[in-house]
Amino acid sequence: MGGLGVRFLPATRTVPKPLLPILNIPVIEYAVREAAAAGITDIAIVMSHGMESVTDYFQRQPKLEEQLKQRGQEELLAAQIGLASLANITTIYQDEPKGPGHAILQAREFCDGESFVAIFPDDVIINRPSATEQLIEVYQEHGGSVIGVNRAKEAVIPTKGIIGGDPVSENVHIVKSLIEKPALEDAPSNLAIVARYVLDNGVFDHLVTEKPGANNEIQITDAIAALIGISPVHAAILVGFHADTGNPMGMLEAAIHLAKQDPALSDAIDELLES
User: Residues 171, 176, 181, CA angle at the centre, nearest 5°?
Assistant: First the structure.
C-alpha cells in the first residue's frame, strides 16, 4: 500500500490514501476490522515512510478520550477505545514501490514461518462472513494457499491476475495456473484475483528470488504460481459487495452502498440520488 495516491490528489498531498474515508470511516479501518473479526490478533501494515499517521490512527488518543469523557459521550468514548484495541499493529516500511509481491516480502520476518493472511485495503469487501473468513474456511479444509477471486467482465480481464483451474465445489477451484494481466485471448478463465489471500509461508522463498514481472514489479501472483505442485493452491469465489476504493469512482460506489445500509442515511441517499 506504498503508492503515492495520485488518483486522489490534492487530498493525498498530506493525507495518506489509506486514511481517506468512506463516509466517516477510513479505508484502512475496514481492512483491520475484517482481519480482527476473523480472529487475527497481530497485524503488520506495510507502508511508505511519511505515512505514520496510519498506525497512529489505531493508537489510544488520550486528549480526545478525556474530552469525550468530560462531555458524557460514553458510547462514543467506548468506540474510540475499542478501535485502539482491535489488534496488535506493527508498522513495516516498504522503501521503494516495487509492487505487491515486494510489499508482502517486507513482512517475512513478521510472519515468522507461519501461514498468513494478506489484505490489500483498497479493495473493500462487505459481507458476513467476511472475505477473510471465507478464505480461512477454505484454508481449514484444504490447507496450502487460498486466493480470493470474483468473475470479471472481459473488459477488465487484461488488468487483473487471472486463475486457471478446476472446480472442487460451487465456489472453490483448485488452481492450476496463474497469469498476471493476460491478453484476453490468453486468459485461462474469467476468475480474477481480488486482493485477499491466505498464503503458505513458502511463498517468501519465491518472492525473495523473483524477477520483476508485469509492470516491472514483483508480483505476488508469480510467487503463488511457483507454489503450484509444491503445496495446494485453491481459489474461493468471494461473496459480498466489492468496491475498488483505489480510485474515486470506487470510493463513491462504496460510500453510496454503505449509506444505503445505514438507517440514518438510507432515506437521505435515495432522495439525493433521485434529485
Answer: 90
